[in-house]
Design brief:
The structure is a single chain. The protein is α/β, with parallel strands linked by helices. The protein is 21% helix and 14% strand. The chain contains 19 helices and 42 strands. The strands form 7 sheets. It has a 16-stranded parallel β-sheet, with no helix packed on it. Helix 9 runs parallel beside helix 12 and helix 12 packs parallel to helix 14. The radius of gyration is 50 Å and the shape is elongated. It starts with 12 loop residues before the first helix and ends with a helix. It is an enzyme of class 3 (hydrolase).
Amino acid sequence: MAHSACHKLILKATFICLIKLACSYSFRSCIEIPDSNHTIFTCVKSYERDITAIVSDVFPTALNLTISHSNIEYVQSQSFDHLPNLTALILDANHITNIDKDAFNNLHHLQTLNLSCNNISFLHRDVFSDLHNLTQLLLGSNKLTNPDKYLFSSLTNLKILDLRRNHLYNFSSVVESITNLTSLIKLDLSFNKLTTLQHSTHLPESLALLYLGDNKLKTLGCDKSFLMNVKKLDLSDNKNLASKSFLGLKLENITYLRLRFTNISIFKLLTYPNVHPWHIDFSGLKLKNSHALSSLCVLMRNHSHKHLQIPKMLLQSNSIGALKNNTFRYCPSITREMDLSRNELKSAGCLQFLHNQTQLKSLKMEHNHLTKLTSCNKAEIHNSLTNLSYRYNRILQISGYAFSNTPKLEILELNINIIAYMDHKALSGLKDLKTLRLDNNLLSDIYNDSFEDLTNLKTLNLRNNEIAVIFNYTFQNLSKLDILDLGGNKISQLKPHAFDGLYSLTNLYLDRNHLKMIDVVLFGKLSGTLQVLDLQGNMIMYFTEHTHSPFKNMSRLYDLKLNGQQPNGINLLPRAFFRGLTSLKSLYLTNNHIIGFGDETFDDLKNLDYLTLDNSCAGVAQLQSGIFKSLQKLRTLSLENMGIKSFSKDVFGNLTGLKTLHLNRNPMMSLDISLLDNLTNLIYIDMRSCPLSCGCHNSDLQNWTIMNKRLQFPHLFNITCPDHPGSYFHNFDTKVCYLDIELYFFSSTSTLTILLTLIPLLYVKLYWKFKYGYYVFRSWFGEQWRRLRDQEEKYNYDAFVSYNSADEDWVMEQLLPNLEGSSFRLCLHHRDFELGRDIVDNIVAAVYGSRKTICVVSQSFLRSEWCSLEIQLASYRLFQEMQDVLLLVFLEPIPERQLSAYHRMRKVMLKKTYLQWPGSNCSDPNSAKELFWNQLKRALRSSNSGSQDEQKMDDNELRRKEKVCADKEEREYFVNQTPTEDEIYYLMP
């Protein structure tokens, strides 16, 4: 139901600031017509049986309310008491059987009440007592039998009362119920069961239109003056009504008397002086042949010498088979219309039967059996005839000069026949013709001289024929033509000069043809005047985005239809397709399966008012940001079934004038209401059949849909939750979304602050441990880790040599011969790493598959990331397993202050001794080198758990011998030398 005031949400202060200013409303069973300013409401196909439940949420400002095709059976007391401003209440096509006597109380402004097409058989005498301003009451198609005498007594302003298609049988009781209705003009009692017009009181003097057709009247049985004020009387389809019933009746004011399909003899009726023949409709009175019609004419002429002219003669449904030349010769002059429709005429000839009818303006011969229109080049001219209709016949062929006898025709209707051939000169001479209808025929060809004489033609309708090609200069003489309708043909080709001569054309309809492209040059000839262009249902398709706009010069076009291109839509829409359409107001692109829309697609459509893209997606669509940025004047946007799951905020851009937005049948599970912030004039948004999720991410949308009365959200209360069967979107539980929200905010922000503080510290301190753990895990995952741990003393190599490629010469020329020559097995990366295996896995396997790791340290080693990783892995093994697995060999003097940046290596050096390769400046290099190799070999032979004191003593001796050699080199190399950034980076944990 609609909420007349915004619900107050009990939330904490931190959440209140998140509530959007935009608000909306909805109704349980009704829709407010967009842009009606809360005055027009429709409630159609509601499953509610209680009418108060349907209307209870309708705004009190309602003026027009329609409730149709619903399951209502009973209208309760004061059902509309909260709608005092209603002027029209439509309750038709329901199942109403009973109405409470106070149902319409308080509706003092009601003017129209429609209760037709229900099951009402009884109405309480006071049911309309409060409707003093009612002017129209429609009770047709119910089951009323005998209205109460006072049923309508309060309706003093009633003008129209419709009681057709009920079960009324007592005419007198009906008259008694309306006798005081001094404003009543029209009473319709058609299709009831009345057998007589006997009465106990008179009709209201104001009553002018009385319809009594399709009853069971056998006699009128009324006073002579009973019908004296009636002007239009319909007694048709009372099959047993005889002529004598009119004897003596005062019918002087009758202007239209309809008597078709009765048993009345028109020849007898016209002998009564109170009946005026020029006011009678002669349809359906068995005037089958020319003799009967001629006799009728004589009676009409002799009836009164004062009326030598009559406005019209209606002769429908008389089974007339043929007309002779002198059939209407003796009739009074017919000035306006003759209607011979629904007869059995097989030929119209050249209208010879109209001899002597020199003032007739309109002739209708519809629904006959005409098959051909012959040439009338030498026939009698009927200069007065301006309207001629041959609709609904069987005309197959039109000969040349078929209308030469009617040169002043302005309207010619030949539609809905089977015309397959029309001679080149068929329409010759019709220089005054303004409207020509040839639609719904079988024409396949039209020629460049078919319309050459129609220089004043304004409307040409050729819809639904078999035309395949429009040839050059076909319309060259139609310079005044406004509307050309070629829709529903088989046109696949328009010749280059097809539209030449159409200097005034404003509306061109080419829908449902076989056109495959829009010819820029051809349509450009119409650019100065064309305002409406209908191209829907053709075969237009593009294969490149770089196509020039076919509309670039159509600056006056305001309505363009391109929807439903066959077989699968336009698919690809060129980037500048609509360029030049600066005046366009309505654009239809439905059912086109367009792959995507560029953000500049609609840039030139600055005056667009209506845009529909329904069913124009190709799967899931994502509208480009700013796609509607130039459409500030757009009022209605329809995006139904576009495959849209979400919008970016810029999609709606500058749609400040948008009032109606249709998003129905899209796979949208949520809608961010901030997207609609710029739509300041939006009054209607339709999201029916969207699978809106009933979760916390939609809590704002739920609140927004029920806030207040600015924006209508139709059928909100029928939207179910696909993720919670049996639940409804408008009332799913959102309390959990707002509980202790400030605590959640505090907890989340506090946690985030702590993490942002700790992460940099952990990065600095534990980076290499994390990285080491990651690589160890990878190795373990490949089962390498398990193999190395389980085989603690079973090694593949005596030592893994970690070195930089810059020191490869020393390794290959010095280290490798001295150690492998002494039966040591060394692992070198360029020689022993497994091919195809990840390098990290190879390093881990080498470190843990060797008894020792020899790190050949130099400046190049310190700069290498892979060397840094290798020494890190070895040092982690050293500290973790507490075993002597790491040997450091310095190829050049590197003082501790330079190594301070690499505190992981300094930490190793504090725990373990290391070897220094004797330099060239040493006083006894050969002795020093011999001692170096002996110490290195001893270190390799020692077990991981051996005595470290003995080795430390030998190491110290070696260091003392080397110190003298190293001092000179250190002084030369490290003067003013500081570590580089790369040196600091590679070994920092």
